[in-house]
Specification:
heterodimer; A: mainly alpha; 2 domains; B: mainly alpha; 70% helix; 0% strand
């Protein structure tokens, strides 16, 4: 008995098993089709480092640093003035009224 | 290899690894005790397949699946195809085992076996595994 004859006999002698195998094939076919057509989700893009070494960035950072230095100087002046006023007010408070 | 490494290697393929281990285990069992199937509730499976075919099929499918799973990403084109073929053959055999348990009900007159839903779920999820493996065939980075 050839293999084809065996398969033919099997299909008609065991209808339940053959029907189950057929159902599996029918379920598998659309899955195979869509599986082969579908593409897996792309991996997340690699993080790109920020370009720091640009002339524009260096110029702006230098300007920012100078501005901060200026603000710092002005705040120092303002702080000493506030300190002077506070000291004066404390001295006046401590002085007894005549 | 630690358990952590093992889990990392098989990643989301642990279900396939489990069914592969089941196939290889059944192949060993049939090789050691060829009458094991005939003496079990799966005896109606022998209407379709002889123990030699069953054991050989389990052995070949299990080995190919295990090879594809172990190779993981380093076998990018044939690996997923082998995994899909293994999953489809798994679905076929679990389905036939489920049918064998169903055929036991009218022939023996017993209540339905608790194995029926187990083998049915295995069949369905093997089809899902086949689909998931085939999606990887079209991965861009293997071209």
């Amino acid at each position: 008995m050839t293999f084809v004859e065996k398969v033919y006999d099997g299909l008609f002698n065991f209808p339940v098993q053959s029907a189950a195998a057929l159902v599996i094939i029918l379920l598998a076919l659309p899955l195979i089709r869509s599986g082969l057509r579908e593409k897996p989700p792309a991996p997340p893009p690699q993080p790109v480092p920020i370009e720091v070494e640009s002339a524009w960035m260096i110029q702006n950072l230098t300007r920012m640093q100078m501005d901060i230095e200026n603000i710092k100087g002005r705040l120092d002046v303002l702080s000493s003035q506030v300190k002077g006023v506070a000291a004066l007010l404390k001295r006046r408070e401590r002085r007894k009224p005549k | 290899m630690t358990l952590r490494n093992l889990v990392d290697h098989f990643e989301n393929r642990l279900f396939e690894l489990a069914t592969t281990a089941m196939m290889l285990g059944l192949a060993v069992l049939i090789a050691l005790w060829p009458d094991a199937i005939a003496a079990s509730a799966f005896r109606y499976l022998l209407l379709v397949l002889s123990p030699a075919w069953l054991g050989g099929g389990f052995c070949i499918a299990g080995t190919l699946r295990l090879a594809a799973l172990v190779a993981n990403g380093s076998w990018p084109f044939y690996g997923p195809i082998l995994r899909a073929i293994g999953a489809l053959s798994g679905a076929m055999i679990w389905c036939q085992m489920c049918i064998a348990l169903v055929l036991l009900i009218p022939n023996v007159g017993s209540t339905p076996s608790p194995g029926i839903p187990v083998y049915l779920v295995l069949t369905i999820f093997e089809l899902f595994s086949m689909y998931r493996a085939l999606v990887l065939v079209n991965r861009d980075d293997i071209r």
